[in-house]
Amino acid sequence: MLKFLRFGILLLCVFFFSACNFPKDPKNSYEKAKKSFLRVGVVSKTDSIQTSFEKNLIQNFAEQENMQTQFITDNETELVKKLEKYQLDVVLGGFKKKSNWKSKVGMTKPYDSIHVFFIPRGENRLLFHLENFIHKHKKQ
User: Fold this and answer.
1) Disulfide check for 62: which of 67, 85, 105, 122 has CB 3.0–4.6 Å away?
2) What's the confidence (pLDDT) of residue 124?
3) Total-model pTM
4) Could you give the domains of the chain?
């Protein structure tokens, strides 16, 4: 019985210490954005008011994180392809949570209860910081 208890404690410690580097950042997107640019894709054919709001929100996030932004305008399909290849960090375009792209991209939590930003799939530090910013922005 004591042997199983020790094993359980050891297993718990392994899980605890392996989670210490959360959030994972497999492509170093957050560090790369801090060192060079936050690469932001903007869908070319979207509502200009929505796009302006989203650009402003991302710009404020980047300023808070001491990042420069680089906006790249293209069509939705090309931007999603670039996002999948980690050539972009964020894509904005008035996307809703129930987007047809959800199998190919990651998404932030909604910033206004409906709209989300696209991010590369997978857990990463950039998503963590962006969602914290969005959460704080919603409260203001």
Assistant:
1) 67
2) 82
3) 0.79
4) 26-139 (3.40.190.10)
CA 129 to chain centre: 8
Give the chain's mean pLDDT.
84
Q: 14 φ, ψ to 5°?
A: -60, -45
Share of the chain above pLDDT 90, in %: 59
Q: Across residues 70-77, what is the average pLDDT?
A: 95
Nearest to 34 by CA among 133, 129, 134, 139: 129
CA distances from 69 to 9, 60, 65, 85 (A): 46, 10, 11, 19
CA-to-CA dists, residue 37 to 50, 64, 130, angstroms: 23, 14, 15
Three state DSSP letters for the chain: CHHHHHHHHHHHHHHHHHHHHCCCCCCCHHHHHHHCCEEEEEECCCCHHHHHHHHHHHHHHHHHCCCCEEEEEECHHHHHHHHHCCCCCEEEEEEECCCCCCCCCEECCCCCCCEEEEECCCCCHHHHHHHHHHHHHHHC
